[in-house]
Write a structure and sequence with these properties.
This protein has two domains: 196 residues, FAD/NAD(P)-binding domain (3-Layer(bba) Sandwich); 158 residues, 2-Layer Sandwich (D-Amino Acid Oxidase, Chain A, domain 2). The protein is built from eleven helices and 20 strands. The strands form four sheets. Strands 3-5-4-12-13-14-11-16-15 form a nine-stranded mixed β-sheet. It has a six-stranded mixed β-sheet with strand order 6-2-1-10-19-18. A three-stranded antiparallel β-sheet has the order 7-8-9. The two termini are 18 Å apart. Bound molecules: flavin-adenine dinucleotide.
Amino acid sequence: MESKLNNIVIVGGSLAGLMHGIMLKRLGHNVHILEQNASSARSGYAAGISAGPHVQEFLKNHDFTKLPYSVDAEGIQLLEKTSKVKRFIKKPYRLTSWTLLYYRLRANFDGLRSDFCSDPPPASESDGKAIFDTGKRVIDVELTDGTVKLRYEDVNRDKDGMLYADFVIGADGANSFIRRKVLPNVQRPYAGYVAFRGTVPQRDVSEETNRIFDGRLSLCNMSKPKNYILLYNIPGEESGSVKPGERVLNYIWYYNVAESSQDFTDIMTDTDGHVHHSMVPTGKLRKEVWDRQTGIGKSVLPKHFVELLEKTKQPFVSAVSDSIVPAASFFDGKLILVGDALSLFRPHVALSTNQGALHCSLLAKVLKGEMSMMQWERKALQYASSTRLSSIVVGNYGQKGLVSFFVSIIKYFLVIIGQKIPGLWPSKL
Ligand SMILES: Cc1cc2nc3c(=O)[nH]c(=O)nc-3n(C[C@H](O)[C@H](O)[C@H](O)COP(=O)(O)OP(=O)(O)OC[C@H]3O[C@@H](n4cnc5c(N)ncnc54)[C@H](O)[C@@H]3O)c2cc1C
């Protein structure tokens, strides 16, 4: 790959796109992010994110604000129905939020000021140009005379535009347009369960409940029906404060619902009557759906979790699914897929953002001449396949029967062994 690319376009300005944008501009490349959202403001992404090792490494190297970004936990406690601790697994976690990461990355990419970062770090003289272009939805991509041509519609002005790029990064998420264009047959099958999610500020939660959930991730498995809930503290929603008392309790409750059932259609039908395939966002989940789910919670969950369900103002739900690609580099290495566009994991292992950060650090090696694009692709596909399967193992343990669980373990180990045998997997590379 050329040592300086003057014209890099990233499709998608979320976490994976922004991490790549920051890394590239700091290596002196000019970066243009095309993002379909009409504005830079983001709210309602009330999601906790576990900052895995590659995210931590990225922030250590590239977050020049040096502000705190996480609430740290010492491990996971497994709770009984009475909220008594059954088991404690010591494993440190750094827990943050989608919104904090988004605004922190924007501060570093193009100096966006926000309540999360009022004093963004200045650009350095050696940085390339960094453009975050909102309201631009990419609607076509092709290779023409050795250059990648992108067509987009301007969502704000209702008109099309064109861009040419030396290198394009498809960071446009789980429903990636770029992926559909180059790999139209990739599937995203439903896992058989949904994830109800919500957050409650610490200040709204009773002292006892705050104490039980403090400093640890809390997990409760239920057998009738089989389902589980996970909860942890994350930075505050308004400005990302990590101070005790200003944090937010964030939970995810996995619940089995057959795709063909009326329950599934009911859950995925929003307040406007629109039936979603993958997520009913915050503010759109119908009250009757949430009241019913809270009622179920009262009979199966420990009372401290029920308190949170009852105090959640804006719950949301996603149908859990995953996907993986057979290849990640196209157009002679001039177009790559990264982040969720490359592989969507079920959320159980909380490593999706970590995957985006890994892609970014591997690409930096390619640009510095320390690795070939083919090696980048091999490592990205290997990480995707093993992590995706490990998350299926955890999901099957929590949601399904023993047979599914053991079959998923066998598949996982076969892939791990296959990856250790040179040339066996992925076979094309
Ligand atoms: C509710 C929720 C909870 C999550 N919890 C966790 C967690 O606990 N731990 C974890 O590690 N990860 C979690 N994730 C996943 C994590 O947010 C993503 O893995 C991470 O943001 C990386 O995603 P991405 O940037 O690849 O894609 P996305 O975040 O999906 O971003 C894609 C971007 O591309 C834009 N876009 C799409 N199509 C186009 C187009 N045609 N033209 C221009 N722009 C386009 C979209 O508007 C969006 O901004 C969660 C995600 C959600 C939604």
